[in-house]
Design a protein that fits this description.
- This protein is an alpha+beta fold and 94 residues long.
- The chain has one domain: Trna Endonuclease, Chain: A, domain 1, CATH 3.40.1350.
- The chain is 46% helix and 21% strand.
- The protein contains 3 helices and 4 strands.
- A 4-stranded mixed beta sheet has the order 1-2-3-4.
- It is globular.
């Protein structure tokens, strides 16, 4: 197995847990992959969400997307757990 596949497998597990938690609270989740992992809608609010393992770093493309969102005032978050995703969505309190 190549290094890329091993990394992707770990990321996919984190992403699967996050997607499951988001859907459990009624969020609409689209797995888009690039430039970010998810497009998430909940209670008339949409945001892009990047799922990372605990020490994962953004790629250049992900960083560019984050900056574009900041400049345009669009909601974008990087999350590392299902709890972080639910807090970012406003489904639970921090």
């Amino acid at each position: 197995m190549s290094r890329g596949h091993a990394h992707r497998g770990r990321k996919d597990k984190v992403q699967e847990e996050i997607v499951s938690a988001l859907r459990d609270v009624g969020a609409r989740v689209y797995i888009i992959g690039e430039p970010v992992d998810l497009l998430v809608g909940h209670r008339k609010r949409w945001l892009t969400m990047e799922c990372k393992k605990p020490k994962g770093k953004e790629t250049r493309q992900q960083s560019d997307h984050r900056v574009i969102c900041e400049v345009m005032g669009l909601p974008h978050v990087v999350v590392r757990s299902d709890t972080e995703a639910l807090v970012a969505l406003g489904a639970i309190s921090a």
